[in-house]
Amino acid sequence: MMSKQQNLKVAPSLLYIHKAASEAYTPIIEMGEPRQPKVPVNNFSFYEEEFQQRLTALLEEIFDPGISFTQTDHLPRCGYCDYKSMCKR
After folding, report:
1. How far is CA 84 from the centre of its chain?
2. Of the chain's two ends, which shows fewer C-beta atoms within 10 Å, N or C?
């Protein structure tokens, strides 16, 4: 939304409270292959089209009444889920 309102570079960020006190911490998202050096995303416009396509597809799937919800088979994920009580996990 910000990049549409102003002609500025937007760096998507995630704030991890438990890591924020570290001097080496940066909230800017980094991308790259596993076990390879990561590159900070300092300009969202390079990723915007693919992001919009994937987000739209995901939302269409979530709201499609023809696709039933299925619980994950990877149970360790449930340990951190805020909604596990709804799934009875």
Report:
1. 20
2. N
